[in-house]
Amino acid sequence: MLYPQANPHRQMLDLSGFWDFCFDPDETLTATELTSAQMQPIAVPGSWNEQFADHRDYTGTAWYRTGFRLPWGWRGQRIYLRFNAVSYVCEVWLNGMRLGAHEGGHLPFAFDVTDHVKDNGNVLVARVDGHLLPDRVPPGGMGAHPEASFNRAGYPDTTYDFFPYTGIHRPVILYTEPEHAIKDITVTTDIEGTTGIVKIKVTRSQPTEGTSLTVTLRHPADGYRKLGDAVIEGETAYVAMHVPDAHLWSPQEPNLYELTVGLAQPMSVLDSYTLQIGIRTIAVKDEQLLLNGEPVKLVGFGRHEDFPVVGKGLLPALIVKDYALMDWMGANSFRTSHYPYSEQMMDMADRLGFMVIDETPAVGLFYLSGDDPGLAKRNALCQQMLREMIDRDKNHPSVIMWSLANEPHSARLEARAAYERDMTVMDNPSKPQAVNTFRELAALARELDPSRPITLVSHEGAIEEAFAFVDVVCLNRYFGWYTQSGQIDRAIALLEREIDLIHEMYPKPFILTEFGADTLPGHHAQPPEMFSEEWQAEYLVRQIELTDAKPWVVGQHIWNMCDFKTSQGTLRVNGMNYKGVFTRDRRPKLAAHRVRALWNPEG
Ligand code: GCB
Fold first, then answer.
1. Is 377 helix (H, G, I), strand (E, B) or coil?
2. Nearest residue CA, atom 1 of ligand 1?
């Protein structure tokens, strides 16, 4: 799905702004009977939980409404309405006509509204349902179920550790496409010597006699310009271009080329679309991750889309700020924990040269021993979301890996108990349902995109047998925090023993995708003590030093870049996770300076 753009053949109108809004806890309202008296203003994009203090913890149903007029010149085009992300189920009506619904909070969906849109006075209504339920992804509503939440039930009742912000979180865009349109572009790149090979697949709306496709590749810095010839088969066209002395994309030099695809008839251009692309390769060889054929090591963070007042709403200034802070730290990468981030964030990663592990919203997945009525639907949603994520993000050079899930509860209960006794995974196989889920997801990811490695981020407590299906082993570990609290030496010894064992079982590149400690800004202790800035700094530095010493560890991502909001519970003071090396308002803690000295010594 191509992002809407304005050019001589396409137009777009961002409907962000103030919409009308009302809560519907009893689910009695209907799309056509909403009255202005019921409604209050809300900002789109933005989470409702932060805008209305009396509904902070509300994750039920609510209604959004706005109006628009069709801009001049749009008639005669195909017109679409695109929601960039709505959490969680969104059902949409235009002028009283139901357009459809979409499930899943972090990926875009669009409707063809050509036949429903009026020149004047359109009424757009969206019903948003944020219920936390066992058959949703991510799931919720499992209370303290020992197989789903490890007894860490919080309020609101999630199976994951971030606040379940709800609402229209990213822009809503009305856009046009011409009748003969470029529907999709897929770019893959390769390198032969100093020549870049760019393979482009274009899908168009309809095969039409006498139309031709042109592809232009341009490097703005050196005036390089090349035209490619397309081989057209029905709706699909293929172009392969050889770029001599290619400017490769890398974190050090995030070179981007401008790719323009044009669809034309002899006397007129019918459509065109421009995309920024990067020429690079990404591969796993032996125990290394290779970018452009060279081993690369990821340093950076797990993060969240989270900020006061907007919640999970898109905030462009925050994107710029966060990249600046990551750059200051010497980070070169991050994981979109635990859901795909905004398209604006991904564009900026391409431009600024950050390597991204792109993760689906499959966090907190569980597999019940007894009857598990939600499992089939969760699995189907995981597949849908993986498809939608790859479809959305496949052309970003910054995306170097797909992550199928974060911390599925794959361990059998007795295995978890055994793990807690001796802190090794050796004799504790995964639940077969988990293995099946990831066998299928891994196969699907490879079918959809054979060009990128895949991974799965595992929880403690079991041998993650699904590591057999992925290219890179990712683990989150909190020795010294949730277990062996306060004992850094012992934590380091256990961490080393466990990652060595797992590496023996799965000799693949390894990334420590989470390690961290809650830290109250301004709390100091000598000698260091948990929750103090000194403790966090020492804890992180020791784990960085440990993993630096292992050649097969190709990445270290601190949990978390910034403090972030969570559900309330005994483990979360103020309803916050304080593991950030920056505060929620982006001020560095002591650890930021200490880690920066390791990651960015010359900075
Ligand atoms: C984890 C989760 C992450 C949590 C973190 C923590 O393993 O992946 O979502 O926030 O632990 O702080 O407990």
1. helix
2. 476
